[in-house]
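FIELD: query
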Amino acid sequence: MLKEELKERYKKIFKREFKDFLKNIQRPPLNSIRVNTIKISVEELKERLERKGWKVEQFKWYGCGFFVHEPEFKLGSTLEFSLGYYYVQEASSMIPPLILDPQPGEIILDMCAAPGSKTTQIAQMMKNRGIIVANDVTLDRLVALGSNLQRCGVANCIVTQMDGVKFAKLKQRFDRVLVDAPCSGTGTLRSNPSIGKELSVAGIRRLSGLQKRLILAGFDALKEGGVLVYSTCSLEPEENEEVINFLLKKKENVEVEKVKLKKFKMRKGLKSWEGRDFDERVRLCGRIYPHDNFTDGFFIAKVRKEW
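FIELD: result
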């Protein structure tokens, strides 16, 4: 399932927990959905699904999230899905918007938005008030983004197509920026096992270069006092801690805030990797391991622009 070079990497990352990690990624992923409160209340959708015979389990850490056990139908083939009452979304993917904490009336940039999982979640957290600039670079992905925005009833969103790096050069500044960066996706090994056979360390390093450019641009696009959340569904330090360490070296006006979520287990950011020590503040970032919460793996960092 995993190339030898990846196995060696994960032995260093997980250490004594490597076997737990390996067992977990061989299990089938759990089905999960997010209630779209723009269109329906949590209680009403829960009742509708239970009347269908669905076994749903509300997340302990997020009231709008549910695990769906042994669904009789494909989650994307129901009337409720078509009406935009819920969004099929992996559980840990719902966490970056919760850490971003967007507020009604703010101006938000979702730099790498397609297909819209986090954009639609941000919109419902904002109660469709304020402005979201939802950007992506490729047309095919923007088609999916537009479809999901429409289905979910999002009314406060502007869709743009451009290289995210260019936002640093614009005059517009944002209250909050989400950089959910393109990544290797190694946190999703349960549902995408081919990654473990195809990915190379060289490929990880190429992605790291792009991610560093995107986080710099996202930080420059913030207002003074604004908040940026950087996230990946990757387990790789080059795509995670190394990117935050790079930002801290390049910018003096960065305050790193601790990433935490009640009733959800997160690990601290790594303090070093392969002989390279990171800034101590990187430890405030959050690592989500697949075997801790039975979700995909994720990395999340939260920073504030001090001036």
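FIELD: remark
The first helix runs from residue 4 to 14.
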